[in-house]
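Need residues for this backbone.
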């Protein structure tokens, strides 16, 4: 046991040291000067949110005079596009902005990323995110999940406050859920709650006779119409979209399930200094506030910009457990065994 703990401590130390490789002021001034000469930077993003990207890109251009171009697509499409570019020597992309699971998985197979060389503002990371950063990929925000409740069917005092409240017999046959046997929020929910409470929790949850769906938008409409009182897991960043509906969200008291997005620099990036500068900009108050206003979780510990109380609550929701990308297939198999 001591040996395992020592290995884990060593790994965390390596991660923290990777983030702590902070360039000197003089070194970073050279990066900024070189980035301005490059004049532009191209980002490949699996996070399809034009307004979010525009807000951050415009702020970066205003700060440094460097234009940001975004290409947005699903992770698999981005991976294939990059593979073709790298194999043919047509190097177009500079920065990866994608789910950590996608980024690390692709890099293990294709070696498509290079070390970022140290980013000054990465030292602002909360400890739980610094522990997951390395010299190649660093988390920049999280998409958090909670519950959607029909406000006409469930009084606030009766609603589930946390994940284990879903096991109450009164919710049997009344929970609509994203399918944990397929990719998406259901898979993330299953994996993290399994890591927290094990198979017993899910065996009890399965006995609640969940109704599975794979169309997220239709699921929220079905709860709003009163077909079901609860849907799990809700993307909490959708809080603004659901406000006009007779529904409300719940942030689970034990912690949210979530997916992290990270930033990395592609091999053979045509604008390597602008790529580093933009990667660092994602840890600024400006960029983090944009993610917070979208209802996402932020990763820095010393946010100076004041947020409205609701956004503060959403952006600072605590994680249920650390992410683990090494057992995704195992978790699919376990979900299929429990939820038949």
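Answer:
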């Amino acid at each position: 046991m001591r040996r395992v703990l020592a290995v884990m401590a060593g790994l965390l130390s390596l991660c923290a040291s990777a983030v702590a490789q902070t360039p000197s002021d003089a070194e970073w001034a050279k990066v900024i000067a070189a980035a301005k000469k490059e004049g532009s930077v191209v980002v490949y993003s699996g996070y399809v949110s034009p307004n979010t990207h525009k807000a951050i890109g415009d702020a970066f251009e205003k700060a440094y005079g460097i234009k940001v171009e975004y290409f947005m697509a699903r992770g698999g499409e981005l991976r294939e596009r990059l593979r073709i570019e790298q194999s043919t020597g047509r190097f177009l992309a500079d920065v990866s902005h994608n789910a950590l699971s996608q980024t690390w998985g692709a890099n293990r197979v294709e070696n498509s990323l290079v070390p970022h060389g140290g980013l000054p503002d990465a030292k602002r990371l909360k400890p739980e995110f610094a522990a997951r950063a390395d010299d190649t990929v660093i988390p920049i925000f999280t998409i958090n999940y909670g519950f959607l409740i029909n406000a006409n069917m469930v009084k606030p005092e009766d609603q589930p406050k946390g994940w284990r409240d879903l096991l109450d017999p009164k919710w049997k046959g009344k929970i609509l859920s994203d399918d944990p046997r397929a990719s998406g929020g259901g898979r993330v929910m299953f994996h993290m709650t399994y890591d927290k409470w094990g198979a017993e929790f899910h065996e009890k949850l399965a006995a609640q006779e969940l109704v599975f769906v794979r169309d997220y938008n239709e699921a929220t409409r079905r709860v709003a119409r009163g077909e079901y009182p609860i849907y799990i897991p809700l993307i909490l960043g959708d809080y603004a979209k659901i406000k006009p509906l007779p529904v409300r969200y719940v942030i689970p008291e034990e912690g949210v399930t979530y997916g992290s997005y990270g930033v990395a620099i592609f091999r053979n990036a045509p604008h390597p200094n602008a790529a580093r500068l933009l990667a660092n900009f994602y840890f600024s108050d400006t960029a983090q506030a944009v993610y917070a206003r979208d209802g996402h979780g932020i990763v820095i510990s010393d946010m100076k910009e004041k947020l409205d109380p609701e956004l503060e609550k959403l952006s600072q929701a605590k994680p249920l457990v650390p992410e683990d990308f090494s057992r995704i297939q195992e978790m699919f198999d376990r979900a299929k065994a429990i939820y038949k």
